[in-house]
Amino acid sequence: MVVSLILLWIGFCLLLFLIRTRRPKNFPPGPQPFPIFGNLLQLNLENPVIDLQKLSERYGKVFSLYFGGRPAVIITGVEAMREALVTKAVDFAGRPDGVLLSHLTQGKGIIMADYGPGWKEHRRFALTTLRNLGLGKQSMEERILGEVSHISAHLEKCAGQPIDPQTLFHNASCDIICSIMFGSRYEYDHKFFQAMIKMMADNSKIANGPWGMIYDTMPLLRYLPLPFQNALRDYHTIKMHVLDVVNEHRATHTPKEPRDLIDSYLDEVDKRGKDCAPFDDGQMLTMLLDLLFAGTDTTSNTIRSAVLYFMAYPDIQAKCQQEIDMVLEGKDEPCFEDRHHMPYTQAVIHESQRSASTLPLSVFHCTTKDTGLMGYDIPKGTLVIQNLSSALYEEKHWKSPHSFDPSNFLNEQGQFEKPPAFMPFSIGPRTCLGEGLARMELFLILVTLLRRFQFIWPEDAGEPDFTPVFGVTQAPKPYRMVVKLREIMT
């Protein structure tokens, strides 16, 4: 009797699953899902990007998968992305709930906040405040170049010795965003600073890695002591640290004289008075954490990728240095405007971004209403995943899509030219908030370092391995490098 009831229950669950996973009429096609797991077992959880590309070749530029019983639409290629994220931007501008990232942020802040008035106000506030704090101006350049001096000092001490640059570039990227948010930077050997950087790197691997996918797919496992619990714990630890910084600011804050992003937020709350919604402590903390996580991992991993390419292709590195030496002759430091006179170096930096594909699947979207895409019907609330890597490698849009080639960004006259398929920060209203800061950081940091140092692949390190480590932000595998001091032309 008991066995019969169990079998009946299992049969009922399977029937319910089959009903739930029956694709709606005119929904994008895709592979048949399995009970409980959906299509999870048909993906390489260590890095699903290659599998997604193969599925696209079979089912088209817009296809569907099931994560457990939840349907998701995968967008592949430039045309499909532009239709979804630009032409029908509002329809696809939502953020999903019920996934690890939304649980970490509780749907607050900017990155995982759903599309609506509160998100719009916070994004507008953040962009305005970044400009007020110097983004696009000389003061921000000085802030970035000041941090580069700390990188250079470390590299000078290590000249001639093989070193792992991962922590160094994470330190610098994190310190730049900390100086904007907190008004001060950390010393590189600060104990909590190092712990925080490690926690952020680990969380990036978990959130879009195998354990993050399992968390999103099988809710029943969320309370077990599995690695995604580390992400929840670490996020809370960093959040408490940022709360302490906010409380310190409250005690020393002078109204209308903002020193940094926290002071500016406190001023905004004061200006709004009692009815300050949607601006409150919870939103402020999550927004600060959004900027901290996004502003550290993406930039540092792109810099590490660029340095890897410099070492793998020394002729490209030498050509960049020749252009930099010529343009900066007689100058102590570069400025962001110098990029207009460095077409080849600009092309190499952008090719590093394209080849590294630091945000391979961007941040998951969600439809805000019943809509359509490339002839298919997509219901409101559908999870949407944009495969940014597919656009960055799409063959018809690039001269050399599958190799590192700066000519992808140079026209026949040798001038810098950015193809419309270049969208490493995504496109549309939810494009990366920190794109302007990241572009400035990448140029000033890489140009300064290339001018001062030569990057050399260690003789005993074998061949460079470009296989990425997948996560919310994709990173190159750990490697070691040797730096040699160059003579600066003045």
From TrEMBL:
GO cellular component, one term: membrane
Keywords: Heme, Iron, Membrane, Metal-binding, Monooxygenase, Oxidoreductase
Residues given in the record as heme binding sites: C432
Cofactor (UniProt): heme
GO BP, one annotated term: xenobiotic metabolic process
Regions that span the bilayer: none
InterPro entries: Cyt_P450, Cyt_P450_CS, Cyt_P450_E_grp-I, Cyt_P450_sf, Cytochrome_P450_fam2
Pfam families tied to this protein: p450
KW Protein transport (keyword) present: no
GO molecular function list: heme binding; iron ion binding; oxidoreductase activity, acting on paired donors, with incorporation or reduction of molecular oxygen, reduced flavin or flavoprotein as one donor, and incorporation of one atom of oxygen
Subcellular localization(s) per the UniProt record: Membrane
Annotated family: Belongs to the cytochrome P450 family.
Protein name: Cytochrome P450 2F2-like
Species: Clupea harengus (Atlantic herring)
